[in-house]
Amino acid sequence: MTIFEELKRRGLIAQMSHEEEIAELLSDTSKPVKFYIGFDATADSLHIGGLLQLITMRRLQLSGHHPIALLGTATTLIGDPTGKDSLRQMLTHEAISHNADCFAEQMSRILNLKSDDYPDLSGRVSGGIPAEIVKNGDWFADIKYLEFLRDVGRHFSVNKMLTAECFKTRLEKGLSFLEFNYMLLQSYDFLHLYRTKGITMQFGGNDQWSNILSGADLVRRIAVAENITESSAYAMTFSLLLTKDGKKMGKTEKGAIWLSADKCSPYDFFQYFRNIDDGDVINTLKMMTFVPIEEIENMEKTLSGKELNSAKELLAFELTKMVHGEDEAIKTRESAKSVFVSGGDDDNMPTVTVIESEIGILDLLVQSGLCKSKREARTTVEQGAASINREKNTDVNAVITIDDFVIVQKGKKNFVKVII
Hints:
Largest sheet: 6 strands, mixed
Strand order of the largest sheet: 1-6-5-2-3-4
Number of helices: 19
Oligomer: single chain
Distance between the termini: 56 Å
Shape: globular
Helix content: 40-55%
Structural class: alpha/beta
Radius of gyration: 24 Å
Strand content: 5-15%
């Protein structure tokens, strides 16, 4: 089975510009393909959508191809309008640089890297052609605006751009000229990397199809303008990680599922995947793990109902191991089992500190992070979904005494240890 066939079999491929050519190029691993995926540094951590891209890069790396991770230190200054109904928060150069450094550290846990900018992150994992990290701020810093408009802007049709999916949501409420430039900048990234590093393919999430395709089109248009007879530029997008209801996976009541342990504890990360819907576990195993596809397909045929719990635990363990390391994954798995079986007090359980030894149950649910408001907490208690130390509490006026710690529970699967 070729890597292209495996990507298809795992349900990862969404759209392609030239399917037969891409399939042929990726299948011939004797001639490594140089490809890149871009990551705008909009936060100080990647989330599981970015993780899916890194895992797919790793698959291609292990198959013999050459990945390049582009950190959007310039494009982040503009802000991608894709899927947004308002202008993104404007970040400073310093914040973007910090975020890019955080991304690089997380990438080094998944990819075999070789980076002059990050020598201490190189070689953390082995296998395949080492991936490079580049930053588009390095080349956009020297770009002159008028020359950019003449050399690049003339190849873009405004009418065509306005039909692009990435602009649709913003057009309804007002698209700024700043955001309108984003497609040109991302497209130029492809052209620059084509010229300087011989990159011929850009990949990314399917919500980026318009931007990625415009980059490949720009490379080909420039090649025609410069009379380059042998030019190749290809675009391919990967399926988004969606629930069976068609919603983006990775959102919880507490927020996004981040790769940073500071923003999402290994326990919460593990529990998210351990508790996903039965209808999502097989697809997520296919897309996000290196479990052999034949093994997953066998699970798909033979497991149902409560039997799917073994597949969920496998999924949660494999991803936690990938992001936080095997030792952390083992500790978290045992902690989750301990809490579920006995309401235990394992040290790896998410912990929240409060200053009062006696606290009302509604305040306790809010301060523990299990509920966003007292109104939600009241509903939770009244519906019998709140427990303290494994004992259900339906009294909204109850006062909880904390001698050392208490285990606060919402529903069947959400636990927090609260200490003074």
